[in-house]
Amino acid sequence: MELINQHTKRIMEGCKERARAAGLSFTNESLEYVVTNRDLLELSPKVMIPTLYDYWVHDVEVLRERGKYELYPSNPYETVINTRPPISFYNDNNPDWLNVMIFYHVLAHIDFFQNNLYFRHTWDYDFTGQALSDKRVIARLRAEKGRWVDYVIEFARSIDNLVDFHGELADLFTPPEAACSSRLNYYFDHFLQSEKKISVSEYIKEVNRYNACLRTYGELGEKTFFVEAELRYPELEAHFARVHEIRPAKKRDLLHFLLDNSEFLARDENIWMRSILEIVRKTSIFFQPQIRTKILNEGWASYWHEALFLQDDRIRGHEVDFARVHAGVTSMPRVGMNPYALGMRLFGHIEEQADKGRISFDFQRMTDSDSRKHFDSGASAGKEFIFKVRENLCDYLFLKNHLDQDFIDRHKLFVAGKRLDQQRMVWQYYVKSRKAEDYKQMVQDTLYHPPVISVDQTKGIEGSLYLTHKFEGKQLVQEYIANTMVGIEYLWGGPVHLETSEAQIIPTPATAAKTDQPPEGEIAWQRVLYSMNGRVLTKKEL
User: Fold this and answer.
1) Which long-range contacts (CB under 8 A, 24 or more apart) does 469-477 make?
2) DSSP 120
3) All structural domains of the chain with their residue ranges
4) pLDDT 10s digit of each residue in the chain, 542 long?
5) Alpha carbon of 414 to those of 71, 340, 411, 497: distances in Å?
6) Pairwise CA distance, residues 345 & 439, whole Å
7) How close are the terminal C-alpha atoms of the chain, in Å?
8) Cα separation, 347 vs 301, whole angstroms
9) Which of 126, 146, 155, 212 could bond 84 through an S-S bridge, CB–CB 3.0 to 4.6 Å?
10) Residue 262: HSE in the Cβ half-sphere, 13 Å Cα cutoff
11) Any residues with CB less than 8 A from the CB of 528 and at least 6 apart, and which?
12) How far is CA 239 from its chain centroid?
C-alpha cells in the first residue's frame, strides 16, 4: 500500500475543482492510496480502517475472503473512509480514465460524509488516530490479561448494535436559534407524551400555542406559554422538579447502562474492562450512520460520478468503456435491489420532480393521471432540493418520502414473488405487485433495523438486570439469545432477564389432524421471559 503518484494526484485535484464548481462541498486535504486486491482483503474486515484494533474474528474473515477470492476473483475499484482527512483506496491496475470516474464517485462520498447530519458526531475528530490509540490500549491489555480481553470484546460486540445512536445525535450541534430550555423539553418530550398521553391533535395544538406565544411576546413567550400550561396541569412543576433532580440513565443504550451501573465493572480488578466497552461502543456509534445511509450515500455518489464524468474532457475516447463500467455498477435488476441503481435513479427522479414543482401539495392532491403527467410549474429548484435531501435524510426517510408510484411506473419496478412448480419441481418467479407501497416495504425490510431493547429498572429482583424488547413485528433470533445473555450476565455481574415476544402457531382444525405435515394457521405472539442465572438459561411464558 502506497500513496498515489503525482500524476494521479494532479488528476484528483482537477476532479476536486470541477466537483466544487458543480456545488459539492468538502475539505481540501485528502489521502489516496494505491492497493492490491490482496490489500483490500486484509482491510475489509476492519471496515477499511487500517488502525482498527485487532480481533480474532477479523482473521477468520480474511481467510474466508481469501478462499472466496480464489474461486471468484474480483476487482474492486475503490473504497473511501470517513476520517480527517478522508482516506481512499484505489486498485493498482486502474487506468487514468477510470480513475477520473472513481475520483468523482469518491468526492461525492466525502461530500456526503461531511454534510449529512447523521454523520455530525464524526466531524470534529480523526477516527483513524482515535482507532490507533484504542488499538494500543487493547494490545497493552492483551499483554497483561491474555485471552480475557478477547472474551470481553466478544461480549461487548454481541450487544454493540443496541447503542442509542439517535440519542447521541440529539445532544450534538443544536443550533442556537432552536435551543430550548430543559423545562420546555421536558414538557413536550416527556410530560405530554408519557405522563398525560395526550392525542396527536392536542399535542400539535400545544406546539402551535407555543409558537404563537413566541411571535406575540418575543423573549417572554415561553414564560407566557407556561402560565396557561400550569393552570391546566398544576402538577407540572412538581413533576419537573423531581425529574430534574434525578436524571434518568440512557435506558436504550445497554452498553452505556452497563458502564454506568455495573457493580462488577466498578471493582478495582475489573476496571480495565470498562476501557474495552467504551472502545466497542464508540466504534459502533461511529459506523452507525454508514449502515443507515447505504442507499442514499451510494446513490448520491453514483449520481455525481455520472453527471461530472460525462462533462469531463479528459475522458474523450473512453465513452464506451465508461458506459460498460457504469452499467455494471448502476444497472437495475429485475428481481432484488441494487442500492447504487435505486439511489441514483431516485435522486434523478427527485430533481426532475422539484424542477417541475411536483414536490408540492397542489401536485399531490391531483388524481387525474393526464394532469399529473403534464404538470410543470417551472420551479427549477431541483439541484437545491437534492442537496437538502443529501443533508437531512437517511435511507428510511429517503424511501418513505420520495419513492412514489410515479417512480415505480417510470422504471417498471415490481415486487417479485416465488412459488414452487409441483410438476417440474422448480421455483417460479412472478410479478406479485406493482404498487409503490409494496415495493417500498420490500426495500425497507432490507434496511438496518436493530431491536429496541431498553432497561426496565422497575422490574426484576434487586441485583438483577431486566431488559424489555419492544416488539415491532419481528422476533429476536433465538439461536443467539443464550450466548448473548451469557455475555451480558458476565458484564453485569448478576442474573439477567429478557422480556420479548415469540411466535406461536395456532393450527386450524383441518391441519391439526394431519400429523405428516407441519401445522398451518394463524400466528399468535406470546410474551416470554428469558432468564440467565449462573450461565443457565430458562424461559417462561408471561
Assistant:
1) 469/498, 469/499, 469/500, 469/501, 471/500, 471/501, 471/525, 475/500, 475/501, 475/502, 475/503, 475/525, 476/451, 476/500
2) G
3) 2-116+293-322, 128-164+251-290, 176-245, 331-444, 452-541
4) 789 889 999 999 999 999 999 999 999 999 998 888 777 778 887 888 888 988 888 777 777 767 766 666 666 667 888 998 999 988 887 888 888 889 999 999 999 999 999 999 998 888 998 999 999 999 999 999 999 999 999 999 999 999 989 888 877 765 555 567 778 888 988 889 888 889 989 999 999 999 999 888 888 888 889 888 888 888 888 888 877 655 555 567 899 999 999 999 999 999 999 999 999 999 999 999 999 999 999 999 999 999 998 888 887 888 888 888 888 888 888 888 889 999 999 999 999 999 998 888 888 888 888 888 888 888 888 899 999 999 999 999 999 999 999 899 999 999 998 888 888 889 888 999 999 999 999 999 999 999 999 998 888 788 899 999 999 888 999 999 999 999 999 999 999 999 999 988 776 665 444 444 445 567 888 999 999 999 999 999 98
5) 33, 18, 9, 43
6) 15
7) 57
8) 10
9) 126
10) 24
11) 499, 500, 501, 502, 539, 540, 541, 542
12) 35
At 161, the amino acid letter reads N
Task: Look at the block and give the residue holding cell 430550555.
Answer: 181
CA 29 to CA 26: how far, in whole Å?
9
465-470/452-455 β-pairing = antiparallel
Nearest to 471 by CA among 499, 504, 443, 496: 499
What pTM did the predictor assign? Answer: 0.83
* Burial (Cβ within 10 Å: 0-12, 13-18, ≥19) of residue 287: middle
DSSP H or E segment with residue 212: helix 200-217
Angle at which helices 339-355 and 395-402 cross, to 10°: 50
| C-alpha grid cell, residue 415 | 415486487
- Count of H-run helices and E-run strands, the chain: 25, 11
**Phi and psi based region of residue 91 (left: phi greater than 0; alpha: psi -120 to 50; beta: remaining):** beta
How far apart are alpha carbons 120 and 103 in whole angstroms? Answer: 23
Please give the angle made by the CA atoms of 386, 390 and 394, to the nearest 5 degrees. 125
What single-letter amino acid sits at 313? D
User: Could you tell me whether strands 87-91 and 31-35 are parallel, antiparallel, or unpaired per DSSP bridges?
Assistant: parallel
Tell the burial category of 150 from Cβ atoms under 10 Å away from its Cβ (0-12, 13-18, 19+). middle
Is residue 276 a contact partner of residue 153, using CB atoms and an 8 Å limit?
yes
Q: What cell was used for 146?
A: 491474555
For residue 464, what is its C-alpha cell? 438483577
Please check whether residue 100 is in contact with residue 312, taking contact to mean a CB–CB distance below 8 angstroms. yes
Strands 78-81 and 31-35 come out as unpaired
3-state class of 526 per DSSP? strand
Question: Of all helices (H) and strands (E), which one includes residue 418?
Answer: strand 415-421
Residue found by looking up cell 403534464 in the block: 374
The Cα 164–Cα 160 span in angstroms is 10
Separation of alpha carbons 256 and 278, rounded Å? 8
What single-letter amino acid sits at 510? A
